[in-house]
Amino acid sequence: MSNKPCSSSSSFSSAPSAPSPATPQIDPIVLKCETFINEQLRNDLKIIHMRQENIHVQLNNFDDLKSFIIELQNTSFGPGKSIKTQIDVGHNFYMRCTIPCTQKITVFVGLGFYLEFTLEEALDFITKRSKFLNSCLEKLSDQAYKVKAHIKVILDTLSYLQGITDKDVNEEECCC
Question: How does pLDDT run along the chain (176 residues), one tens digit per residue?
């Protein structure tokens, strides 16, 4: 026997190869980003869309009221005259009603309050309120664009971190 020190000249190792240092850090980051997108940003976007829908409903109601007031002004009713009409009480369910005086109208102004206006005052209020609601819609649209941009940036960053290119995404879309 020889007294040479044992040396392992074999190039095969039974130990598994260690992953690259960047790989373990990407997975938690990807998970956090996906969680942030799904739980926070998409929820914010849903809330913005609900607010926009609410404002659209209010604008439609004001448009209907404005056309009704213009119709009242165009028809010649004397003071103290009453008219019979039908009012939509919701879900296209109409009820007959009698309007005893066509000189003034009661308008819902918000927070559970109603005000009695002359027809001209009501039109002024509707015009001002519609401008305000349209400016709110513009602000909400800007917020929605910002949230969508954040989602896009994070998804692009995740694609970069995971090594997914646009070519890979297009190939996956074609195959499915």
Answer: 445 444 444 444 444 444 444 455 567 888 888 889 999 999 999 999 999 999 999 999 999 999 988 988 887 665 567 788 888 888 989 999 888 888 888 999 989 999 999 999 999 999 999 999 999 999 999 999 999 999 999 999 888 877 776 555 555 554 44
Cα separation of 132 and 124, whole Å? 12
How is domain 25-76+102-163 classified at the CATH fold level? Helix Hairpins (1.10.287)
Tokens of 135: 């400016």
Parse the chain into domains and list their residue ranges: 25-76+102-163
pTM equals: 0.69
CA atoms in the 13 A half-sphere facing the CB of 67:
5
